[in-house]
Amino acid sequence: MTKQKTIWAVCAILALTALDQITKAMIITHFGTIGKGIPIIPGFFNLTYQVNTGVAFSQGSSLGVPAILLINLVVLAAFCYLVRPYLAIRGGLSSLCLIIAGAVGNLIDRFRLGHVTDFLDFHLGSLHWPVFNVADIAVVIGVLMLVVTIITAESKRPAPEGTSI
């Protein structure tokens, strides 16, 4: 990876992590009380201050903060190692930056607060998606981009010799 791409990647990660932390700080400051929310689009979207002591969709909250931090760091390191072959492919580096920024944003919360601050609350009638944050959006978009990058790269790879279609 070139020095210019490395600088771009670090700046992107820092900017997204900062955006995540700023939005969470604004929610904590302005709402103050966990569970408090305001409708933005009634019947569809609220800003609601929630905390998540677990991982995805609050699963694993009984593990405790040190265990969750360790698991997150190990998974992030393993993930970065496994996606190395795709970093040179268009979209690979961008997807990794989104995933790292989201993971770092939520790790900062866990380290500082012992939980993750969530506030984006979508629902439609009785259907309700778990409350999430900017870091979660970055991870999801990054994973989707990475899947597309990998599928595209693998579809362009020539078939091994001796195989017939």
Can you characterise this structure?
With 165 residues, the chain is α+β, with helices and mostly antiparallel strands. The protein has one domain (10-155). It contains four helices and four strands. It has helices at 3-31, 65-82, 92-113, 134-156; strands at 37-41, 45-52, 116-124, 127-128. Strand 3 and strand 4 (127-128) form a beta hairpin. Helix 3 runs antiparallel to helix 4 (134-156). The radius of gyration is 19 Å and the shape is globular.
Produce the secondary structure layout.
Blueprint: H1 3-31, E1 37-41, E2 45-52, H2 65-82, H3 92-113, E3 116-124, E4 127-128, H4 134-156
Antiparallel strand pairs: 1-2, 2-3, 3-4
Helix pairs in contact: 1-3, 2-3, 3-4
Q: What pattern of helices and strands is seen along the backbone? A: HEEHHEEH
Number of helices: 4
How would you describe the oligomerization state of the chains in this entry? single chain
Number of strands: 4
Helix content: 55-70%
User: What would the principal axes of the Cα set say about the shape?
Assistant: globular
- Main sheet properties: 4 strands, antiparallel
**Structural class estimated from helices and strands:** alpha+beta
Query: Poorly predicted ranges (pLDDT <50, ≥5 residues)?
Result: none
- Taken as a percent bin, the fraction of beta residues is 5-15%
From the alpha carbons, calculate the radius of gyration and give it in angstroms. Answer: 19 Å
Q: State the end-to-end CA separation.
A: 35 Å
Give, in spatial order, the strands making up the sheet with the most strands: 1-2-3-4
> Roughly what is the average pLDDT, rounded to an integer?
87
